Amino acid sequence: MIVLDTHTLVWWVTGDDALSKKAKTAIDHELNGGQIIVSAISAWEIAMLVERERLVLSMNVESWLATVAKIDAVRFGCNSPKPLAGLVGYWQKNHCHSTCSKEGKVAAHRHLL
After folding, report:
1. Which position has the higher pLDDT, 100 or 70?
2. In this structure, which long-range contacts are made by residues 69-77, counting pairs with CB atoms below 8 Å and at least 24 apart in sequence?
3. Cα 54 to Cα 6: distance, rounded to the nearest angstrom
4. pTM of the model
5. CB–CB of 36/4 below 8 Å?
6. Over the stretch 33-77, which tens digit does the pLDDT of each residue have?
7. Is 80 exceeded by the pLDDT of residue 98?
8. β-strand 36-39 against 2-4: which pairing, if any?
9. 71 with 111: CB under 8 angstroms?
10. Adjacent-strand bridge partners of 74
11. What is the C-alpha to C-alpha distance for residues 112 and 98, in angstroms, rounded to an integer?
């Protein structure tokens, strides 16, 4: 299982070169029988970025998110009792083996393996 932050999700889905090789490898690994978790707040953030013209997608936001949701390994979720600002950190600590972030870092959580 891996959690993607908003930038990583967009870079991965759009094939942007900003996605690090390490992050792509981790995502590809999860595509093969694992889970790719996307926070519900990322869907909101993408919509806000499009609305503010800071992100341009190839289709409207609803269609883009629906297309992403059709990827077998992808799960949109918000099961955290924590505030939304801490959602990714909560998932990292409690549910994930690794996380890909905007900085292109993959943090291994070996204590969960």
Report:
1. 70
2. 71/31, 71/36, 72/31, 73/30, 73/31, 73/33, 73/34, 73/35, 73/36, 74/36, 74/38, 75/35, 75/36, 75/37, 75/38, 76/38, 76/39, 76/40, 76/43, 77/37, 77/38, 77/39, 77/40
3. 13
4. 0.69
5. yes
6. 999 999 888 988 999 999 999 999 999 999 999 999 999 999 987
7. no
8. parallel
9. no
10. 36
11. 9
15: alpha, beta or left? (left if phi > 0; alpha if psi -120 to 50)? left
One-letter identity of residue 33? G
The structure tokens listed for 68 are 């992403």
Q: What is the pLDDT of residues 4-27, one digit of tens each?
A: 999 999 999 999 999 999 999 999
Distance in angstroms (rounded) separating the CA atoms of residues 36 and 34: 7
Encoding tokens for residue 110?
């070996």
Q: 13 near 109, Cβ under 8 Å?
A: no
